[in-house]
Design a protein that fits this description.
With 432 residues, the protein is of the alpha+beta class. Helices cover 56% and strands 17% of the residues. The chain has helices at residues 2-26, 28-58, 71-106, 125-131, 135-138, 143-146, 150-158, 198-234, 239-271, 283-298, 318-335, 367-370, 382-388, 394-404; strands spanning 110-114, 120-123, 165-170, 176-185, 189-196, 279-281, 303-308, 314-316, 341-348, 354-360, 408-414, 418-425. The strands form 3 sheets. It has a 5-stranded antiparallel β-sheet, with helices on both faces. The protein is elongated and about 155 Å long.
């Protein structure tokens, strides 16, 4: 500041000296003209600098502007530093803003920001997909004008956001279940979070169906057992009749035992998603065990063919392999009428994959049922399944065992012509 003032005083002194010399030599008129001319030089220079500065501001290039000399150099240097600092801060804020937007966009949940009038200030792409919105089109639109579900409008109007709201049949094809909740923030603004709980709803529905199915399956044998027990307790029965009732009770108890064992097996398989061990399993030995069990279950009512076309061993868990193969064979026996034929075989196909197949001459299965056969407790004919002692869990167990052995369960069936069940194992599961 002192240096600037000194320069100003020096300039004034120079002008006065020049004016005094001209006054002494050429008179007052020329002295006044010279004084005004000299004084106008810095003003013209300042005007030129201001014009350049104005142009630089319009072009947003103040920080690259060439610095002039004199007093303006320090002023413009400080201005350039200030502009650079502001731009750096703005760039940093924009980068942080972009990072927040990217994080919100990456969120699996829908996010909408609403102002004090419930108008949309911003939303991410997930929210757009959930509600069929377009941010560019719907910005500053009231949310209750765009989501017209009565329960949502009531939720908004009540202004009680402590509990979330579940909306069914939302999203594309009305196939989503969405859990919404509003959270106040800032100056009477709200953040609407939307979570896709479709899978949770399906899981909960499956759990309820599972409990209902288990209860239904257990209720029948328990009811029969209780009826027979009351009969034996209250009536004086002959030994032959009492033995008959005991045999019936034993049959129902065996059915409950089979159901519990299958449930435990299925639970263990579902809890262990790791690949099965790679122990060598002798297929010929498994075939011999399957033949014995099949003939015992059939009691001479069916004709069997067991073939091992290739003696290669499987790499897997022998107990699980036996369970899967046994389920396929026992299903064929239960659903094939008396005098029917069942062919069981093991072979290597042209690609070197192992195939265990069970072909029966039963009534066959309609195509609409094939995709659901591996569901727990799913039956094409419920009454026949109960009569033959099935639990409805066999194919579900086979599916999980196949998954643990990287195998594929293939089901082919033609109504009236029988069914074919194939377990296809990859080459990696075939012993050299």
């Amino acid at each position: 500041m002192i240096f600037t003032f000194a320069r100003f005083v020096f300039f004034v002194c120079v002008v006065l000296i020049v004016a005094f010399i001209i006054l002494y030599n050429w008179g007052a008129q020329w002295a006044i003209f010279t004084s005004v001319a000299l004084t106008s030089i810095p003003l013209v220079y300042s005007c030129i600098i201001l014009v350049r500065l104005q142009k630089a501001i319009k072009l947003d290039s103040v920080e690259t502007m060439t610095l002039p000399g004199g007093l303006w150099e320090e002023v413009l240097f400080r201005l350039q530093r200030l502009v650079n600092s502001l731009k750096q801060r703005m760039l940093s804020i924009e980068q942080q803003h972009d990072h927040f937007i990217e994080a919100f966009q990456a969120s699996p949940n829908g996010i909408l920001m609403l102002d004090q009038n419930d108008q949309i200030e911003w939303c991410n792409e997930i929210a757009e997909r959930f509600f069929g919105l377009s941010f560019k089109r719907d910005v500053l639109q009231r949310i209750n004008f765009l989501i017209r579900r009565p329960e949502f409008i009531q939720y908004i109007n009540k202004r009680n956001f402590e509990e979330p709201l579940l909306l069914e049949r939302m999203g594309p094809n009305s196939s989503l279940s969405l859990l919404l909740q509003l959270f106040p923030f800032g100056n009477q603004r709200h953040l609407l979070l939307v979570q896709n709980v479709t899978d949770l709803q399906k899981t909960d529905a499956m759990r309820r169906d599972f409990v209902a199915n288990v209860s239904h399956e257990m209720r029948t044998p328990i009811t029969v057992l209780m009826g027979f027990l009351e009969t034996v307790q209250t009536l004086d029965l002959e030994k032959s009749q009492r033995d008959q009732y005991f045999d019936m009770m034993m049959s129902q108890a065996q059915r409950m035992k089979s159901l519990v064992e299958d449930l435990l097996t299925l639970a263990n398989l579902e809890a262990n998603s790791l690949p099965a061990v790679t122990n060598g399993v002798n297929v010929e030995t498994l075939m011999a065990l399957l033949r014995n069990d099949a003939e015992a279950l059939s009691k001479g009512k069916h004709s069997f063919s067991f073939k091992v076309q290739d003696p290669s061993s499987l790499l897997g868990d022998e107990r699980e392999m036996l369970s899967a193969f046994s389920n396929l064979v026992s299903n064929a026996i239960r659903y094939t009428p008396d005098s029917g034929a069942i062919d069981v075989s093991w072979r290597l196909n042209a690609q070197g994959q192992g195939e265990f197949s069970v072909i029966d001459s039963g009534p066959g299965i309609a195509s609409e049922h094939l995709s659901r056969l591996t569901e727990r407790f799913y039956r094409v004919d419920r009454s026949r399944s109960r009569d033959t002692g099935g639990t409805g869990l066999g194919l579900a167990i086979v599916k999980h065992i196949a998954s643990r052995h990287q195998a594929q369960l293939i089901i082919e069936s033609t109504p009236g012509k029988g069914s074919t069940f194939i377990l296809r194992f990859p080459k990696e599961r075939i012993a050299p």
